[in-house]
Amino acid sequence: MKKLLVSLCTGASLGLAAIAGSTVVFTSEANAVPLSAANARLLLKTAGHYQNARYIPTEQQRNGTVVLQSPILGTDLAHYCSGTVVSPTQIVTAAHCVESQDPRSPDYGLTGTTRVYLGGLGGQMITAASYEIHPFYFDPEIGTPKLGAFAAGDIAIVTLSEPVPAGTKIYGLYNGDPIGKVATHISYGTTGNGDGTEESFTPEDSLTRGRIGQNLYEIDLYNAFEFGLEGAHLIYDFDDGTPEHNALAWWLSPLERSLGGGLYEVIVDQSLAPDLGFGLDEVMMAHNDSGGGAFIDGLLAGVHSFGISLAEQWCDGDPRNGEYVNAPDMTCALDSSFGELAGDTSIAFFYDWLMARLIFPVEIPAPATLGLIGFGLLGLGLGRRRRA
Ligand SMILES: [Ca+2]
Ligand SMILES: [Ca+2]
Ligand SMILES: [Ca+2]
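That is the input. Now the predicted structure with calcium ion docked in place:
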């Protein structure tokens, strides 16, 4: 596991979106805010061209998903994240998306009031009223916040200042075993092609329209790397259909050999993670996708948290600092290309904590109940006429 620890460091960066008129530039600032590590890795990149219509969610599919915009005070910058509506007044997102709003964070006060845009940046805006971050996120033993996105409790609930309008989809929570299940990812962030040829982050496209696609949850972070809490983070890889870029098989393979001269080769056992993806439907989170949802059976099952790739010294072509001749990452950088891994916070792991906090002020009426209410109003009208 010599490779992973180095990767943790490369993942520690902060994603910002600069807003100047209609121009939005995405930049990455290394080690700016360690707690915000995963922020730099969120958006969906796509197996095929990112403008292919197959990746554009319909209005119906965007319903119940949101963009969170948190202005950075004293600047014209804002953090962007994604989230999912889970009650009439509550959004589930990643803790690192709202940590600067929590008094326990060293960055407390850095950002102003978060704006929540329903169904993407073009949708209705509701301001956030309060936040609750899972305590594991700040726990010095369990959460290891210095490791940012790898903290064990990267999940938060945002409470809105007013309820979402009628007709807004409210997602239920998945409480089954997500490992081995295909998840549908819907998110608003950086998009681009998995082969690294194009990358894009604009208000008009990625933040407004979002992207949709699939990936397979294959293992949890602890069972893959003996790190974190068992079951808390769900791991998947960005496949292009080839064994050469089957990242999870490469990372899980325990054997490697030295070829001399600083060169190493992992003896890849493809049977350890044989899945090669879903062809053009395969997607991977990227910048600003943080907090976005992954859905199984129409229920929220995962929250985009972090990405993992091989530290650049092992794939930069320079054997003097060590080099894997068969590194799976198609581009030697943490940029959501084919051959990288990602982790989602598991909703099932935090199911009880979430359910204890979700507020449904009124029991959602069943269709039969609605019919009775209608009948009752009708009867009242008739009665009034009779009196007149
Ligand atoms: Ca995959
Ligand atoms: Ca794979
Ligand atoms: Ca890469």
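The pocket of calcium ion (ligand 1) is lined by residues 215-216, 236-237, 239, 275, 277, 282 (CB under 6 Å).
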